[in-house]
From TrEMBL:
Keywords: Hydrolase, Magnesium. It comes from the Bacteria. Its EC number is 3.1.3.71. SUPFAM superfamilies: ComB-like. It catalyses: (2R)-O-phospho-3-sulfolactate + H2O = (2R)-3-sulfolactate + phosphate. It comes from Hufsiella arboris. Transmembrane segments: none annotated. One of its GO terms (molecular function) is sulfopyruvate decarboxylase activity. This is Probable 2-phosphosulfolactate phosphatase. Pfam families: 2-ph_phosp.
Amino acid sequence: CLTPALLPMYNVESSIVVIIDIFRATSSICYGIENGAEAIIPVSQVEECAAYRDKGLNYLLAAERNGEVVIGFDFGNSPFAYTAEKVKDKTVVLTTTNGTHALHLSLKAKKIVVGSFLNLSALSEWLKVQNDDILLVCAGWKNKFNLEDTVFAGAVISKIKSSKHKLDDSAIAAEDLYELAKPDLAAYLSKTSHSERLKKLGIEKDIAFCLNVDITTSIPVLKGDRLVKMTC
Ligand code: MLT
């Protein structure tokens, strides 16, 4: 099976789960891991993130809600906060509105990896040679469908589908949407509700950055409670 889980409500236990939150959690995670962050610890609640303050000075605390940095934290979810200068050799504790939530709902998965347009080809090449079912978990927005995560799921499907995969209707729909979007991803995805939200906050540059295809090759993978760079 090769399924984009349009909502994180599927049985994850026998699957490799790819967490997808294009604007912006999984794009920022991919960028941070590529830029040498030792680990990114995804937590669900702002309070859990804040609790790391008492665990030592080695943690950078990142919290985002509704697109904005939560007051009192080092930064939020902008990919520009995950440059080598800021995160190399550091451990970031991160909570976001949807991305880290979707990851926590998927904790029973056989394996959890993180995808974004930034690592599309590297991720797809790795997925191609896996024999387990693959669940593309689209974080969406507050448990609702969103277009950018689904279009990315379609991009993965179009790259990796083969005779060993059974595509259900959601996989076919996601791939069709990707084909529609592919000629001009930025223009197609400019109509999404989260683009509108981010534009209102004046952070169009984050949207453009998250649509850079294949600028990284790292695949973040969950080991224990931390996302680290996959070593094959
Ligand atoms: C999320 O996890 O909901 C997001 O990535 C929201 C954002 O910061 O744009």
